[in-house]
Specification:
Elements: H1 2-12, E1 20-25, E2 30-37, H2 48-62, E3 65-69, H3 73-78, H4 82-89, E4 98-105, E5 112-120, H5 121-130, H6 138-148, E6 151-152, E7 156-158, H7 161-182, E8 189-196, E9 202-205, E10 208-212, E11 216-224, E12 226-233, E13 240-246, E14 251-254, H8 264-291, E15 310-311, H9 338-356, H10 366-386, E16 390-391
Parallel strand pairs: 1-11, 2-3, 2-4, 8-14
Antiparallel strand pairs: 4-5, 5-6, 5-7, 8-11, 9-10, 9-12, 12-13, 15-16
Helix pairs in contact: 1-9, 1-10, 2-7, 4-5, 8-9, 9-10
């Protein structure tokens, strides 16, 4: 019976499952236009590509924007006039919220002289719209107003990339931060943790796809602060739409009340119930096998018998009959092994029922079904292999 004990031990080993946490990033960043020009055309101590990279890093590290570099020829085309630059960026396919104009005056053998000017594109566009557009001086008046409403830096000498990095950090930390912070764009990310046991639900926030839920916590980072519409979709659920108030610099936990559709959930329930019934039938068969066993049977072997003579022990088959011993007939002919059948059914049923509890409600518990079938087949196969009669010697 040691094989039966081994099979039952496999069945009783718990099926462990750990809650999963998944990290997603919405990264709903806005465009931040950037144009860098060198009016003199001389070689710079800090190249335009280095300046663009340094500004892009600061923008990404501290704001909700992505730097969108513009063609440097734009400055020459507009002759440095803000009105011309604003008119060009407001008609862009992805209209930026801000425009940063950097002018790097270079002279051979001298340090670069770098200046920056941050323009609020929406405010600048409004200034242009409200202007009269009449008279010879209207453009000059608008240009002066745009300069007055921009955030400018002083001219700073830059002797190399390291110096340019220090200057750009100072610009953002001292000049641009107050402006961007007041508008709600400086380090304005919040975080959302979605709590659900349903795995694979498609998440969209304000219509932007984010990813899919895990069976546990799903952490969504880089969400701009404010009221956000969140949607969950899957063939297994009813579409869910909700609103979440994201707070700047904080984590909001959200537990959506999602209704599952019939399908995977009903199959999961059927597997749980079916597994319990299968295990109960196995217990009954095992009890019958143990109850019908007779320990007082004596067997005989006749010398010269054409039936042969064997000795050994094995599990009793479904054709087992102690009364055949009196007629000198085999009491345990070939057939389905009763006790192994019983505890194999117990093992399979228990694995199906208990394993299904660790699957998501809307999913078909394929793993539990596979494990249960494997346990049942393995338990019976091992027992059948051990139940082979060994040949004996004739007296």
């Amino acid at each position: 019976m040691r094989y039966a004990s081994l099979a039952l031990l496999l069945v009783l080993t718990p099926l462990a499952a750990r809650a999963e946490e998944r990290v997603l990033r919405l990264g709903d960043r806005l465009p931040f236009a950037l144009v860098v020009g060198t009016p003199t055309g001389e070689s710079a101590q800090a190249r335009s590509s280095d300046i663009i990279r340094l500004v892009s890093e600061e923008v990404r590290a501290h704001t909700v924007f992505n730097a969108d570099p513009l063609e440097p020829t734009l400055l020459a085309e507009c002759k440095g006039r803000l009105l011309c630059l604003v008119q060009k960026v407001v008609t862009a396919e992805r209209r930026p919220r801000y425009l940063l104009v950097i002018s790097n005056v270079t002279r051979q053998g001298e340090s670069d002289r770098m200046t920056g000017q941050l323009i609020d594109v929406d405010r600048a566009s409004d200034i242009v719209k409200r202007s009269s557009h009449e008279g010879e001086d209207w453009e000059a008046e608008v240009e002066a107003s745009l300069n007055d409403n921009s955030t400018s830096t002083g001219r700073t000498n830059v002797s190399g990339v390291a110096e340019a990095e220090r200057v750009i950090k100072e610009w953002f930390g001292q000049r641009f931060q107050p402006v961007l912070e007041e508008a709600g764009y400086w380090e304005a990310w919040g975080e959302l943790v979605i709590e659900t046991s349903l795995e694979g639900l498609e998440i969209t926030i304000d219509g932007a796809p984010v990813g899919a839920t895990a069976a546990g916590d799903t952490r969504v980072q880089e969400i701009r602060a404010g009221s956000r519409t969140i949607t969950f979709q899957s063939p297994a659920i009813e579409r869910f739409d909700g609103t979440v108030d994201i707070q700047r610099g904080t984590t909001v936990r959200f537990h959506p009340d999602i209704s599952t559709l019939s399908g995977g959930g009903s199959i999961r329930t059927a597997v749980i119930i079916g597994g319990a019934v299968t295990a109960a039938v196995g217990v009954a068969i095992s009890a019958i096998a143990i109850g019908r066993h007779s320990g007082g049977i004596q067997t005989y072997c006749f010398q010269g018998s054409t039936l042969g003579c064997s000795a050994g022990s094995g599990f009793e088959s479904t054709a087992y009959s102690p009364s055949r011993a009196d007629r000198l007939e085999p009491v345990n002919p070939s057939g389905l092994l009763l006790l192994p059948l019983g505890y194999s059914l117990v093992g399979a049923g228990a694995a199906w029922s208990f394993g299904s509890f660790f699957s998501s409600e809307q999913d078909i518990p394929w793993l539990a079904l596979a494990v249960g079938a494997g346990v049942g087949v393995a338990a019976y196969a091992v027992s059948a292999a051990a139940s082979v009669h060994a040949p004996g010697a004739s007296p």
